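Why does residue order matter? Because the sequence determines the fold. Keep that principle in mind as you read this record.
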Amino acid sequence: MSRFVHLNDTTLRDGEQSPGIAFTLSEKLAIAESLSAAGVGEIEVGIPASGAEEVEAIQAVVGLALPMRVMAWCRMTEMDLRTARSAGVRCVNLSIPMSDVQLGAKLGIGRDEALARIARFVPQAVDMGFEVALGGEDSSRADEGHLARVAEVAEKAGAFRLRFADTVGILDPFSTFKKISALVSRTSLAIEFHGHDDFGLATANTLAAVRAGARHASVTVLGIGERAGNAALEQVAVALTHLYGFATGLDLRALRPLAEAVAAASARKIPEDKAIVGSLVFSHESGIHVAGLLARAETYQGLDPALFGRTHDVVIGKHSGTKAIAHVLEQEGITLNSDVSALLMEFVRMTATETKRAISASELAYLHARLVAGHAKALRRGR
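Structure:
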């Protein structure tokens, strides 16, 4: 099997569907350009049927002529296809429910009619000049036999890929692996996995899907999206590369700037401890950890921050030890005075507890200077 995994970023479609997020045209263009610069080869740019403003935004992104596939999400209707054509995209995700509950509740049809619509609309879209990916909404609750028949009909009709969507986020990595393995074994059609994070498992499920044979993964920057969100682009990309040896084509140094751009456009802050892109993920406070890290980086290093253009950062706080304090002072050009080290640690712990934050290097230097001066004064008094 190929060791390359194609990442389909849907920040501009599913990501913007996150409650409260609304990108301006300039923000959409900037995000699209940042995704391209990071090496993302495919984006799902929006839903043309949402209205004229969305069509104009999609046209503008297409007009950038970025070196990536730009896709639109469409329902399986003639109107959606016509609107997608007016938006200028050359590729569509034609979506239709896979589960009986959604087929009945949303469309009022059964499995046979769903297959008939796939057999009708996929060739129609191909004849209109589109590349067609079939979007299998709610695949995680679908009958496996029906999914296999969908894949067969879609491939014969001219689709190049089937999206297995865990629309309501009910899978875990074990059930994901089982379902994707079963589907891959019954079709030669490329499989994409689209996970939701309702149980906090979207990234894990995406990795399981790839291990099971999916070679396309639907992701969003920072995992933004409906309800609890989607699988995070940065987490999936790094895990695929460094845990499993897959290639994704992404420039890892671009991930944090990309995350910052999306966070700003979303009016959301990146949590400090957010995996891969958080400001503190390469910061260390614990005295035991810092001592080991200073002796040999691999002692407490699972990921090399240099891969992301970053470095380890020693943070001074309640749990800091003498070696950490000496290291930070040394970076400030100060040698820790052994006569005041114990008292300095006590002051650091008290200050950190009271302020609920780390102690900056300048604050540490100031505390050290005061204690050294006080110690010298006490010595003079004792003479």
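Strands lie at 6-9, 42-46, 69-75, 91-97, 131-137, 161-166, 190-195, 216-219, 283-284, 313-314.
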